[in-house]
Write a structure and sequence with these properties.
Structural class: mainly beta
Distance between the termini: 84 Å
CATH superfamily of the largest domain: TolB, C-terminal domain
Oligomer: single chain
Radius of gyration: 42 Å
CATH architecture of the largest domain: 6 Propeller
Number of helices: 4
Strand order of the largest sheet: 15-16-17-18-19-23-22-21-20
Length: 809
């Protein structure tokens, strides 16, 4: 909940807490409902016959929804439940039922303006839609008895995790006009504003309501309540899409209809045993069949016949739960049922049903209902034209208790009252508006069934109700990271609070822990958490199974793991859904940067490619000639040339003579190298015998495409041939070297005779000659020598010079 404390002050400067009955600034009529419990309040907003700028409130008003205008106002939408062709001709060109929309001031509930919502009616003709309006009218566009209604949450028709669906908003209802009643989606936003669409794939029935599941997924799930005798409960399952019309994207076209069959209960007579299984029976595609066929098919398929299903809604804190009323009769048991689906992602699996109120608790003919975010359900009665005043109850899900909240004004709705209007009254259309008005507030419509001239048709009142049980259960969510608050809606991630992961190696997970705090006196219910956005797949949240509760002043932790799939900045949004009424979707941006380490190895500043099998003295991989039992060292630079931190886990030697090679010192693995840094690795070779000595250096690291990094090493073991003094002479050349069949010895500036010998590594002399004084060049035939390393010794009186000769064939 946003940290704003507001005292609601109405015209005349009275306080909500000071008054239980308040007359709003746009009406002269006192409230039709009276509080029945301490702390409850009622504010009358507008009554039937009253108008704003020439536009009148009409009745009977029923199902409601609202949108926040993001300004000082909000817009309320409510059904007007008139049978066709009664009433006045409306904006869409026909009389009968319609929808009113009212722009209302948030601060004092003053009504600013009113109008008809429906302008264009799109009716299904069997294969396409035909549009009707005031300029192209038809009796087919006349609606009859819009009863309860619902304004689904954004995610009902849009999956933020995949982008499928539409972000346009729709108000849902249907005709409670018998077996051929039609379902409709009425556009509220964008280019859909004022456009109404028949929904043939939901089937034809006597609609009390059609309520879409708010759970974010690619499936679109709508529960339909058939208010008839017998009446069924149906489940429509469609699929959202990226393309098509708005209602096609929403998944309201092309889906299948299922009927709920409760095990062992074809007809509702007594309440079933708690948690009795129910199944979803496939009714197939129903867009081409009349309602009478659907009804007879339901009877044939064993769909449960309830005692007139009325309104229902999803549990905001548990996406698997749906509650609905059955009204029955003034003398029969009116029940509140809970459907608990096994898995809302697979509703076809069915679930269990429980009558949480079995009809013996005193309620009469329950009609509409409205859940809050805190585990309470407001229940409204429609007792019909009976000597019984309609009441409103609070039902608490966790305790199972039912408490009377409001009663009808006995001076108006009881025979003999001084302001008597009728005994035929009902409560309807309740909707939670805590996100607009603050903790505890709802809208409701009282239907007073006495006749008035058109366009009003009959009496009624739009009002605001304050439920103290809802207010007392108010919870306050706050989320921290590393002990720092992260405000809901934060757009800029920070490393300090863990929402910015900084640089992280591709494929290497990195965690941040966030704490969910409940800083209020009510229990906070966390219903779900998820990540969506451009790179949502790179982030995963783990935490307690949902739903879970956080006690007042308590907390719980969620771990967010960033695992970059590719290089670059990765952005997403983290969501925590809870019972906080105005921060129910607590979201903030998160990001990380995918980086990649890159291992390069160099010797003498020359790159040694991984997989190299040929050694070279220039890069140090060929140690050259090394005396037996003596050592020679090469230094290799392990460099991180990538953008991510490189971790070197080990460096080991393998191969035929790997035991004669060693790593100098004891490197402390793992070795961590930041980008553009290096580590010097010294290798020594100590031949144990003569001949070519081979090994491989294997370096293990988190370089994704060069792990392990392997290259060959070589040395030539030789023995000491007795030359104790070797004089360096820069005027001696052997070429080509390596040689095949011949080699040229070139000497400059010598005045002495030079004895030239060629020996193998065993010290055997294979060639012996001499260069006379002044002779500068000698060509030596080597075709009889096998491949290997040889020693060329040049002896003078002044000393010796040694040269290596490699024969390669």
């Amino acid at each position: 909940m946003k940290k704003i404390i507001t005292t609601l002050v109405m015209a005349g400067a009275f306080s909500v807490q000071a008054q239980v009955l308040q007359t709003g600034p746009s009406t002269s009529v006192t409230p039709y409902m009276w509080p029945a419990v301490n702390g409850a309040s009622v504010i009358s907003i507008l009554s039937s016959g009253e108008s704003v700028n020439g536009y009148s409130l009409c009745a009977p008003g029923d199902g409601m929804g609202y949108l926040d205008n993001g300004s000082p106002t909000f817009t309320v939408y409510h059904n007007v439940e008139i049978s066709y062709p009664n009433g006045s001709v409306r904006a869409h060109g026909q009389p009968g039922a319609f929808i009113q929309e009212w722009v209302i001031q948030k601060s004092n509930l003053q009504v600013i303006s009113g109008s008809d919502l429906i302008q264009n009616v799109n009716l299904w003709t069997g294969s396409t839609y035909t549009t009707y309006n005031a300029n192209n009218t038809s009796t087919l566009a006349g609606f009859s008895r819009f009863c309860a209604g619902d304004l689904p949450a954004l995610h009902a028709f849009y999956n933020p995790n995949t982008g499928k669906g539409t972000t346009e908003r729709f108000f849902m209802n249907g005709e409670e006009s018998g077996a051929e009643g039609r379902a409709f989606a009425h556009g509220l936003t964008g280019i859909e504003d004022g456009k109404s669409y028949e929904l043939p794939y939901l089937g034809k029935l006597s609609y009390e309501n059609a309520i879409a599941s708010p759970y974010p997924q690619d499936k679109t799930i709508v529960i339909e309540l058939d208010d008839s005798s017998p009446g069924q409960v149906y489940v429509y399952v469609g699929n959202k899409s990226f393309s098509g019309t708005a209602i096609e994207k929403a998944g309201l076209v092309g889906g299948k209809l299922y009927g709920i069959a409760v095990m062992g209960m074809f007809n509702e007579i007594n309440a079933p045993v708690p948690n009795t299984p129910f199944s979803l029976v496939d009714m197939g595609l129903v867009h081409t069949i009349p309602g009478a066929t659907l009804q007879s098919r339901s009877l044939d398929y064993g769909i449960t016949n309830f005692l007139r299903p009325e309104d229902g809604n999803w549990n905001p804190n548990n996406p698997n739960e749906f509650y609905f009323n059955t009204t029955n009769s003034i003398t029969g048991p009116s029940r509140l049922y809970r459907l608990r689906f096994t898995d809302i992602k697979n509703p076809e699996l069915g679930g269990t049903i429980t009558a949480v109120l079995n009809g013996t608790e005193g309620q009469k003919m329950l009609d509409n209902l409205a859940p809050d975010n805190h585990g309470n359900i407001m229940l409204q009665e429609d007792p019909g034209n009976n000597i019984y005043r309609a009441k409103i109850y609070n039902y608490n899900i966790s305790t199972g208790t039912k408490t009377t909240l409001f009663d009808c004004d006995s001076t108006r709705f009881q025979t003999g009252g001084v302001n008597f209007l009728t005994i035929d009254e009902e409560n309807s259309g309740a909707v939670d508006i805590q996100g607009i008005k603050g903790a505890g507030w709802f809208l409701s419509f009282m239907q007073a069934h006495y006749a008035l001239p058109n366009p009003m048709t009959e009496g009624g009142q739009l009002m605001a109700l304050y439920n103290p049980f809802t207010a007392a259960a108010n919870a306050e969510i706050n989320i921290t990271g590393n002990g720092q608050n992260i405000a809901a809606g934060t757009a800029s991630p920070l490393t300090a609070n863990g929402s910015d992961f900084g640089k992280s190696n591709v494929g290497k997970p990195k965690n941040s822990v966030f704490t969910i705090q409940n800083t209020s006196t009510g229990t906070l219910i966390v219903s779900s958490y998820y990540v969506n956005g451009i790179n949502a797949g790179d982030f995963v949240i783990t935490g307690p199974s949902t739903p879970f509760n956080i006690a007042p002043n308590g907390s719980a932790s969620l771990t967010l793991t960033f695992n970059a799939a590719v290089n670059g900045t990765r952005n997403a949004v983290m969501h925590v859904l809870s019972s906080d009424f105005d921060e129910g979707d607590y979201d903030f941006n998160i990001k990380g940067i995918g980086v990649t380490p890159e291992l390069d190895v160099k010797g003498n500043a020359i790159l040694i490619p991984t997989g190299a099998v040929t050694t070279n003295s220039n890069n140090g991989t060929n140690f050259g000639m090394v005396y037996v039992n003596q050592s020679k060292v090469s230094v290799f630079e392990l460099q991180n040339t990538g953008t991510g931190t490189l971790t070197i886990n080990s460096a080991v030697l393998s191969g035929p003579q790997s035991g004669e090679f060693s790593i100098i010192g004891t490197p402390s693995f793992p070795i961590t190298l930041a980008p553009s840094t290096n580590y010097s690795l010294q290798l020594a070779v100590t031949p144990l015998t003569t001949g070519i000595r081979n090994a491989n250096l294997i370096i293990s690291s988190d370089d994704a495409d060069e792990n392990p990094y392997v290259f060959a090493l070589q040395a030539s073991g030789t023995i000491d041939v007795g030359i104790n003094t070797i004089t360096s002479n820069e005027n001696v050349w052997l070429y080509p070297n390596p040689a095949q069949d011949a080699v040229t010895l070139k000497v400059q500036d010598h005045k002495e005779t030079i004895q030239v010998s060629i020996m193998n590594l065993l010290g055997e002399v294979l060639f012996n000659t001499q260069l006379e004084s002044g002779q500068t060049e000698l060509k030596i035939q080597t075709h009889s020598m096998v491949s290997g390393l040889y020693l060329v010794k040049l002896k003078q009186d002044s000393g010796y010079t040694m040269q290596n000769l490699i024969i390669s064939k």
